[in-house]
Prior knowledge:
Mean pLDDT of chain A: 85
Strand order of the largest sheet of chain A: 6-5-7-8-4-11-12-13
Radius of gyration of chain B: 19 Å
Largest sheet of chain A: 8 strands, mixed
CATH topology of the largest domain in chain A: Rossmann fold
Order of helices and strands of chain B: HHEHEEEHHEHEHHEHEEEE
Radius of gyration of chain A: 24 Å
CATH class of chain B: Alpha Beta
Helix content of chain B: 25-40%
Number of strands of chain B: 11
CATH topology of chain B: Rossmann fold
CATH class of the largest domain in chain A: Alpha Beta
Distance between the termini of chain B: 50 Å
CATH architecture of chain B: 3-Layer(aba) Sandwich
Mean pLDDT of chain B: 86
Number of domains of chain A: 2
Shape of chain B: globular
Distance between the termini of chain A: 47 Å
Oligomer: heterodimer
Helix content of chain A: 40-55%
Amino acid sequence: MSALRVGLCSALTDTVCDALRQAGIRTANEFVIKDVEDLVQKSGVSYKDLQAIRRVVLAQYSSFPQCGLEVYTSALTSIAILPTGCPSIDTLLDGGLYTGELTEIAGQTAVGKTQFCFSCCVSVACDTKQSVLYLDTCGSFTAERLADIITAQDKEQEVDEALTRVRYHRVSDIFQLLERLEEIKLHLSKQTDQFYSSLKLVIVDNVASVLYPVLGGRHMDGLGLMSHLGLKLKILAVDFSIAVLITNNVASEGARVSLGKTWSHVPHTRLFLSRRHDVEGRPVRDAKVVKSNKMDQAKTEKTAVIRQDVQTPDPLSILS
Amino acid sequence: MTSETGAQLLARLGSRPSMNGLEPSLFGAGPETKTAYELYGEEGTGKSEMLMNFVSSCILPDVWNDLKIGGHNACVVFIDTDYKFSILHLALLLEKRLRGLFKDDSEMNSCMEDMESFIKSCLKRLQLLRCNSSSNLLITLISLENILNSNSDISVLMIDSISSFYWLDKCSGVDNTNMNSITATLNSLLDTYHIVLFVTRAAIVKHKSKDGDRHTEALTADYMCHAWHNFIKHQYVFIPLADSREVKVVCQTQNVNTRFSVSDSGIKFK
């Protein structure tokens, strides 16, 4: 909600502002919902001035309509699909992580969520030569692991170069996370830092650990912060054409994603990881797309089986 | 007495493309103008997909190259508050729908080049707006007057979803003031311009039956402000069916009880 302030347009002078305040109009919202002719009576400001202010306020604070064709042509040029480093999951996700989308990885503890993030991190920094920003809320990030994964792919000489394309921030609560996201947006719109102009992937591992502490107790505030975070992540993804990858825990013994009904609507795509043993007793991971806006349901029911096999160059398998 | 310009009068009284025949399994003869339809459901029940389906029917023409498509040749204003609208998905839906109309492949291949430019010409009939707060949504809706005045082909307004800012407003102390104004603004837009409104509302609040009667469990949780629930004339509730991939749609005021599934080429009713 924006306050009506002097200087917004030439008609909005000190006296006009005061007169409007007298009539009980302080914000842009209060102003636009009132009938102009009524306002003339109440505030004594001239009809012409009020109309001029109304036009400016509407232009200033409303969203700009885009023609579907323009959106389409710009989408064709700006959307990129980032490889996750795990071919079977790429197939499952219809190519990989899409820029402009929020993808969530959910699964129980130690199912390989963080390893999956590392894998994406490496493949974006190494293979596509784009920047990755890693926001770590639970202290699980280690650069050595990234280096190990790159080395395991026989790209040892690329380790230093690839790691310069990854930036890491430790955030300890939701407020720091929101602040960080705001900062990223600022950098992205300034475009002075080379790192941010090639930023294609933002990872938040794990959202649940910053949201849990604010939920419960005075429940409502937590839900507000949760919606705020969800919206912010999506705006970052859509406005700057970035792929945002987040991890989340599961509740009720792996049956449902944690954080409840409000959060369940937030991501564009959700990938569910679960653990089981195959017929020979070796542990395997099942990956399943449970939410997607671009696939039909039949496709989302397929699962990819990821084996824990030290011999394959699949980074998720190597060290999970 | 408010005055209006000649252009406004024309926009108001001139005929906008009719929506008759849109999705007969849900609307029978077609959705009525000046009416608000709400699609309510949990995550992943196909509310947004249903809107995409409506968009594609609206922006396609009735006939193209002697092919009967059955579209409405109308313009659509789509307000995305969820930041989930995917234009590529819409383009794909349009393409699949057109492909399905051809009898054989040779016939289709001869039209392939035309199809691309045809889909682009259809996308011109869509206006997309994104809103990031309830204040932004309110002011955007008020400024829609200008768009509706200047384009008499707009018959439909869609919002996906109206509940995006619910918790934000609740916790920032704005509470229902913006939502009340939004409802009033939508109401006057519908009345003045004779358009149809489709909105989605997510089931973000658990429904509790207040009287504690477990037998009459409510289908929906009416957690928004009273003005909103009074404003909605017809509410379609999307219920996922546990044993199949189908979704049940129920509307008590329209006597609708049907089911659909989301397939490769969009929504399919049973």
